[in-house]
Amino acid sequence: MGGGARELAGYLAALAGWVAGLAAAVLPQWRQSSYAGDAIITAVGLHEGLWMSCAAQSTGQVQCRLHDSLLSLEVHIQTCRALMVISLLLGFFGIIVSVVGMKCTKVGEEDPVTKSRIAVAGGVLFVLSGLCTLAAVSLYATQVTYEFFRESTIPINTRYEFGSALFVGWGAASLSMLGGSLLCCSCPAKERRGQRYQQQSQPSAAQDYV
How many CB atoms lie within 10 A of CB 64? Predict the structure, then answer.
């Protein structure tokens, strides 16, 4: 795969990861009520996310309510909120920086070495964004797992388990880190060595001709 195609593939993967991360941050299905156990309760399904909690009834009606107070939230929810916001900001700046540094764009094409460095910087931002998303989703999943097995006296069908937003977040983190890694492969040192080789070969060719 050529350098330009690799950069484009990395950028599209990272962009898809950022969009998926945004969807995961907004979705209220970070954890959902468990349907395991003998007495399965299907009348109302509870979902909770970083910003709101929802109750879905068997009739199809869904009622959501935003979390009332920031300070009253549990520590892991506040931490996941901060990590997701940081992740989205890093990804947003990575989108802008990568566009400037990619070979398929006309911006700064007179200096390919600097342009490659900008692409690498955009890749680093995407990798950091993916790591923040991965940390937020994994931290929340760890808390859900801990609470699920800790509440041994509570029936299983009244506990919470993983929601769909967690899996979306894991996929978003993977895409962001994969795309950022591909963008980081734009090594400016190779281009610099190529330019030096061309400059050294031109005088020698002229001397051979004389």
Answer: 13
Q: Tens digit of pLDDT for each residue in 193-202?
A: 544 444 555 5
What burial class does residue 115 get, using C-beta atoms within 10 Å of its C-beta: 0-12 exposed, 13-18 middle, 19+ buried? buried
How far is CA 172 from each of CA 23, 136, 141, 168, rounded to the nearest angstrom? 9, 12, 15, 6
* Cβ pair 56, 35 in contact under 8 A: no
Q: Which residues contact 141 (CB under 8 A, 6 or more apart)?
A: 162, 166
Q: Residue 100 corresponds to which tokens in the numbers above?
A: 């400037």
For 56-81, how does the pLDDT look when each residue is reduced to its tens digit (9 = 90+)?
777 777 888 888 777 778 888 899 99
Global model pTM greater than 0.70: yes
- Amino acid letter for position 13: A
